[in-house]
Design goal:
Length: about 700
């Protein structure tokens, strides 16, 4: 029991404390309250798993409530998609509710608040209201309409409801405290005029409640006991409680708001607005594009509901924001698919392999295990013949000893089949290999138990029989963004980090057992990764999506880029120790080559910032980084750039000063920085530093 208590997250601990203090368990009620203004994404999955998980743990009802208070952005399409996502994830809601169900009640409460002197109609422009509201460090002031009479407020509010005023002409505001330290308490908006068609109430209403007003009151109507929000709503809690204070009746359950850290995932964006932009700008092919972090996109790509639930369980529920590596989501997916996905053979970049000593026209059906992780999965029959397709990358005409695939004179195994040895190739007029010729050992059949079948070889290849191969379109998906934090750079548009290779479409060949594969079915293409049958599949055309590779290529890429930086910093030290210009040039070319391979914007920026310090090695590294990086000079923070040049020009090292001066001359340094730096150059070189070279002095003179 003690171990179970330790595993409770903080919201469960709060609930347990409430129960121990006398709150009745049968009064527990939760809700998942999406706004139907976009498709749900992986961040919502965390909230879904949390709320519905609490419902399961405490055998309490969980409502699905659509907070549909903004008809300008909400559509029935989004409602339907959200319900589909929840069903797919495996969760069932107790009741389907809508904030729009409560529009009349919310209006009636607003009228009561006006009568009680707690709300008023404001007719200022939004710009004037913003000025009058003050700043976080300066109190707001009362607006000109704050003390309107109750009668006038009631008349105006009813006229707003009746559609007598244009949009933007009036709003209803709560009358709280214009000097509050919490800006949200400075007379927040409750209603605005909107002449828009609502997806459920049609044109009945011309005013719509603001989210902060409708949300908590809807919780109250539904007797929600624990209203769970993400951390950005911490400051809203005071307002949530104030609105409840105006209507609370102690015969009903009073909701309480609790906040947890939202899911932040690297290499993606979570803003609905930005996801909508990706769709509208045709960067992706709709909300369910397999590169999107939407639940529908993940489902179409081949992610399983179980893997997403496991991911949410693994990251847990916390009070502090952090960024989760998308590799963890992929790990959860591999763990799940490894247990369930049948192993099949597919060749995506084919080249023909002819076994010259295999009987002409003969074929046989070999036993192939469906899934070694699942004993009940059994075996299937795979056709084998003398003409096969293998992957082009699995053959080299001339290869080193470390190449463990097919080459001339080397023996490898064909999966589930025989040992073969490369003998020769044929080529086209351009010298490209068009066909590989090999021989096979008839006694080496897999599983036959013969001495030949047990002969050890260095590699095993997958293949597909040419005669029996089924053509398939294969969509090779990769991460949509090249940068780990694409929307975190102030001076950059997140679209600048789109990965141009996020989708590659190819035609490959699959074994005939996949001919009738159903949409949504998962397979492991052996040695390739996990693939899913896409919804574009028809009777005459198979379409597969690559879901995830067998290994985390991005993790390897990330480590390689970090190593490039670390190795460059080590090589910098050698630069100061060698005796000749030729040796220094060789080291610089090596460092420059390493820097050119790095594409991670955030990694380069962080390295630049970290190495803008007084160390001569760090300063020289940053000068090389500016010279060789694929980034623009304008991508670096202006203050950091100015600091770098100031430190570099004062460095004791001639090498650092020289590289800084050359970069100042040759690179597109912003004018403002250049003027300031040249001013420093002039000051510093009035008395040239010790060891200043003639070239250095000439360039300085040219700059000045």
């Amino acid at each position: 029991m003690a171990a179970e208590e330790k595993s409770l997250h903080f919201i469960e601990q709060i609930i347990e404390e409430n129960l121990s203090n006398g709150f009745s368990q049968d009064k527990l009620r939760f809700r998942f309250p999406p706004e139907p203004n976009g498709y749900l994404h992986i961040g919502h999955a965390k909230s879904i798993c949390l709320n519905f998980g609490l419902g399961l743990r405490y055998n309490a009802p969980v409502n699905l409530r659509f907070d549909d208070t903004n008809p300008a952005k909400e559509e029935q399409e989004y409602v339907d998609a959200i319900k589909e996502d929840l069903n797919w994830l495996g969760f069932k809601w107790a009741e389907e509710r809508y904030a729009s169900d409560y529009f009349q009640q919310l209006y009636d409460w607003a009228v009561v608040m006006i009568k009680n002197g707690k709300a008023y109609v404001d007719s200022q422009s939004s710009e004037d209201m913003a000025i009058q509201k003050g700043t976080p460090t300066q109190a707001g002031i009362d607006g000109p309409h704050r003390n309107r009479s109750i009668e006038e407020n009631l008349q105006l509010f009813e006229a707003m409801k009746n559609g007598d005023f244009p949009e933007g002409s009036h709003v209803l505001r709560a009358k709280i405290d214009m000097t509050s330290t919490n800006m949200l308490m400075r007379d927040p908006l409750m209603y605005r005029v909107l002449h828009r068609h609502h997806h459920r109430s049609g044109n009945k209403w011309c005013i719509y409640p603001m989210y902060d007003f409708a949300h908590g009151e809807s919780d109250y109507i539904e007797s929600v006991s624990h209203s769970i929000c993400t951390l950005e709503f911490v400051m809203h809690r005071e307002l949530y409680n104030w609105f409840l204070d105006q209507i609370y009746d102690d015969t009903k359950v009073r909701p309480h708001q609790y906040e947890f850290a939202r899911l932040n995932l690297n290499y993606t964006v979570m803003s609905k607005r930005k996801l909508l932009q990706l769709v509208q700008d045709n960067v992706v092919n709709g909300w369910d594009d397999p590169r999107m972090p939407t639940i529908s996109g993940l489902r179409r790509r081949g992610y399983t509901a179980n893997s997403i639930r496991k991911f949410c369980e693994t990251i847990g529920v916390a009070k502090r924001e952090n960024i989760i590596n998308v590799s963890l989501l992929d790990f959860c997916l591999r763990e799940d698919l490894n247990k369930t996905a049948p192993r099949v053979m597919a060749v995506l970049d084919p080249i023909k392999l002819t076994i010259t000593n295999y009987p002409v026209g003969a074929e046989e059906w070999l036993d192939a295990e469906n899934n070694q992780e699942d004993e009940s999965a059994g075996f299937r029959k795979v056709p084998f013949s003398g003409e096969l397709y293998i992957e082009k990358e699995d053959f080299l005409e001339e290869a080193s000893a470390k190449f463990f695939r097919l080459t001339i004179g080397k023996e490898v195994r064909l999966k589930n089949g025989y040992l073969i040895k490369g003998e020769s190739v044929s080529k086209d007029a351009s010298g490209n290999i068009t066909e590989i010729f090999a021989t096979y050992d008839p006694d080496s059949k897999s599983g036959s138990g013969t001495e030949a079948s047990q002969r050890k070889v260095s590699g095993t290849l997958h293949w597909v029989s040419v005669k029996h191969a089924i053509s398939a379109e294969v969509r090779l998906y990769d991460r949509l963004f090249l940068d780990e934090a694409p929307d975190s750079h102030k001076e950059k548009n997140f679209l600048e980090f789109i990965n141009p290779n996020s989708l590659e479409v190819t035609t490959g060949f699959v074994e005939p057992s996949l001919k009738e594969a159903k949409i949504g079915t998962h397979f492991q293409f052996q040695r390739m990764g996990y693939f899913t049958v896409d919804k574009d599949t028809t009777d005459g055309k198979l379409v597969f999506n690559k879901t995830v590779g067998l290994k985390d290529a991005w993790d390897e890429k990330g480590k390689k880029e970090e190593n490039s930086i670390n190795n460059s910093l080590k090589d910098i030290n050698k630069y100061f120790k060698v005796a000749t210009e030729a040796e220094r040039l060789t080291i610089e070319e090596s460092i420059g080559g390493n820097i050119k391979t790095i594409t991670n914007f955030s990694l380069l920026q962080n390295a630049f910032k970290k190495n803008t310090n007084n160390s001569k090695s760090s300063l020289l590294f940053n000068q090389f980084l500016l010279k060789y990086t694929s980034l623009q000079v304008s991508d670096f923070d202006a203050e950091e750039l100015q600091k770098l040049f100031a430190l570099s020009l004062r460095s004791e090292s001639t090498f650092v000063r020289s590289k800084a001066i050359l970069n100042l001359r040759d690179l597109d340094i912003p004018t403002a920085i250049k003027v300031e730096v040249i001013k420093n150059v002039k000051t510093i070189y009035e008395n040239p530093p010790k060891g200043a070279t003639e070239e250095e002095l000439l360039i300085v003179e040219e700059l000045i």
